[in-house]
Amino acid sequence: MIPTGKNYFVYPDCIDGRKSFNGLTGIIRSELQRDPAGGDVYIFVSRWRQSIKLLFWEHGGFVIYYKKMDNGSFEVPPLRADGQGRHISEIQLLQVIRGIEFQKEKQRSSIRKNTLALEQ
What we know:
Blueprint: E1 8-10, H1 21-30, E2 41-45, E3 51-58, E4 61-68, E5 79-80, E6 87-88, H2 90-98, E7 118-119
Parallel strand pairs: 1-2, 5-7
Antiparallel strand pairs: 1-6, 2-3, 3-4
Organism: Pedobacter hartonius
Protein name: IS66 Orf2 like protein
Pfam family, one: TnpB_IS66
């Protein structure tokens, strides 16, 4: 069960899908300068965007919610360059998990980037 009423943060780079509890909490501590046990939900997308991991603290331990797409890929909402870029709403998180597209692109490149684009 995904926790409701929390802050949801998208990690701006794609991750190695093999990372688990220690690797993900290490990213949160070292790169995001945040406490992974602070009650927020952290969202990580794999390089090819076929899997997504949510990491959060719940009742004395960390929980990883993991979902892999059979067909297609996960799309996160565009990250803003105004300092709020890593934060998404609960509704946006549910849309990401369900595989809903946020914006149509005219043509999607066959080369995938390892970072998530910032909205200007």
